[in-house]
């Protein structure tokens, strides 16, 4: 019998144009489902991989945000059935990568899209909701117990200042909303001033303009009465644009979690990007600062998150209005390849500000 195939978007060479490859449609094995991918999102990782070759073996299918319909279920699947509308962070191997017409994934990487939400809205969540939970709990040791019960005690650091550098990024917006829900009430962030109102509506108590020369003195002033900053989530990872300023804000005893890679030099149409993977070595830190590089790809090591984060926690937070999806922009194009390429080009031109780029996969 002929093997079924479908179209996938691949990075084929460093800084080259994206290409389409026919890849096998893998029948779901035990515990897996086959999903027709209807919408996906393009994220900075696609750019890091295409332009910087970060963790890539060519030709490699891109994408890790899936939104679509279950079309086949494997043995032992318990929570999903054919016809379910699902969303998830799916990334580990070719059959799971989301920039293709079908993905084959275990059901623990998917949640059902709650009533009232479109697949475009839903696909803005998975990779950065998962990244926020992983970075906050694993790298900053901020507990986010699930479920929150009336008996759940107030968190120990509920009034301590927590800095989310880059609040208007997708991951920054989700981290703010998650921290607010878990009772953290002193959330400081940085962004362009145009996002002040949005970020305050998501839980930020103060928003500072990271391009202003007053940014660092103003943050230092704001945290001085609390004994300084003890927790920082760097959602940008730029050597000059976030790590250097953050290094001026923290001292002994502070924990800093940096979303990798460290961007040593941003790429453009004419310049190659440069990345590093050691946030501690990237800039000079004061003695006693605990700097961690965030690697969300390890979140499945947490058994509770493996079983519950995508299937249960993420859909519940969305359904109950605790988390609002990112604003999104639909990237148009007449073919799958055109849409994928247009999204990547927009990322390279640094057009993304407070929004997620989403595009249609299966016609
Ligand atoms: N290692 C991991 O596990 C992991 C997981 C997820 C994401 N990441 C990485 O995290 C980074 C962010 O991802 P994302 O999807 O959230 O990005 P994104 O939404 O595309 O980020 C765009 C935002 O970045 C903001 N920004 C740019 N430079 C800034 C600076 N110097 N200071 C403060 N804000 C700045 C912009 O703010 P304004 O428009 O307000 O100026 C813009 O809103 C990417 O490099 C990604 O690869 C890593």
Task: Give a description of the structure.
The model has no long low-confidence stretch (mean pLDDT 97). The protein has two domains: 5-124 and 325-360, Medium-chain alcohol dehydrogenases, catalytic domain (Quinone Oxidoreductase, Chain A, domain 1), CATH 3.90.180; 129-297, NAD(P)-binding Rossmann-like Domain (Rossmann fold, 3-Layer(aba) Sandwich), CATH 3.40.50.720. It has 363 residues and is of the alpha/beta class. It is built from ten helices and 18 strands. Strands 3, 5, 6, 7, 8, 17 and 18 form a seven-stranded mixed β-sheet that branches. A six-stranded parallel β-sheet has the order 11-10-9-12-13-16, sandwiched between helices. The protein has a three-stranded antiparallel β-sheet with strand order 2-1-4, covered by helices on one side. It is 27% helix and 25% strand. A hairpin with an 8-residue loop joins strand 14 (262-265) and strand 15. The chain binds NADP nicotinamide-adenine-dinucleotide phosphate. NADP nicotinamide-adenine-dinucleotide phosphate is lined by residues 43-45, 48, 127-128, 131, 165-166, 168-171, 190-192, 195, 210, 235-238, 241-242, 259-260, 294-296, 352-354. GO terms for molecular function: oxidoreductase activity, acting on NAD(P)H. This is Enoyl reductase (ER) domain-containing protein.
């Amino acid at each position: 019998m002929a093997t079924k195939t479908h179209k996938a978007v691949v990075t084929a060479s460093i800084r080259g144009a994206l290409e389409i490859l026919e890849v096998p449609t893998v029948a779901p094995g035990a515990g897996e489902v086959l999903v027709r991918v209807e919408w996906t999102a393009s994220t900075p990782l696609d750019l890091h991989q295409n332009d910087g070759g970060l963790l890539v073996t060519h030709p490699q299918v891109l994408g890790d945000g899936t939104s679509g319909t279950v079309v086949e279920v494997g043995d032992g699947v318990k929570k999903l059935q054919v016809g379910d509308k699902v969303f998830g962070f799916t990334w580990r191997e070719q059959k799971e990568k989301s920039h293709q017409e079908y993905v084959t994934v275990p059901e623990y990487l998917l949640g059902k899209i709650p009533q009232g939400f479109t697949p475009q809205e839903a696909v803005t969540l998975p990779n950065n909701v998962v990244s926020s939970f992983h970075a906050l709990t694993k790298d900053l040791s901020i507990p986010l117990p699930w479920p929150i019960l009336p008996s759940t005690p107030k968190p120990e650091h509920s009034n301590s200042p927590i800095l989310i550098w880059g609040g208007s990024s997708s991951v920054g917006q989700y981290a703010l909303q998650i921290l607010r829900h878990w009772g953290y009430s002193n959330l400081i962030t940085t962004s362009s001033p145009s996002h002040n109102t949005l970020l305050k509506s998501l839980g930020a108590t103060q928003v500072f303009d990271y391009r202003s020369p007053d940014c660092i003195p103003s943050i230092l002033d704001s945290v001085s009465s609390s004994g300084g900053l003890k927790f920082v989530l760097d959602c940008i990872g730029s050597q000059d644009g976030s790590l250097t300023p953050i290094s001026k804000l923290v001292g002994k005893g502070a924990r800093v979690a940096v979303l990798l890679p460290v961007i040593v030099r941003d790429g453009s149409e004419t310049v190659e990007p440069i990345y590093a993977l050691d946030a501690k070595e990237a800039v000079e830190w004061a003695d006693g600062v605990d700097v961690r590089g965030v690697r969300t790809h390890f979140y499945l090591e947490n058994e509770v998150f493996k079983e519950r984060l995508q299937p249960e926690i993420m859909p519940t937070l969305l359904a109950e209005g605790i988390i609002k999806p990112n604003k999104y922009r639909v990237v148009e194009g007449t073919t799958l390849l055109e849409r994928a390429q247009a999204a990547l080009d927009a990322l390279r031109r640094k057009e993304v500000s407070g929004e997620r780029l989403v595009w249609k996969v299966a016609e």
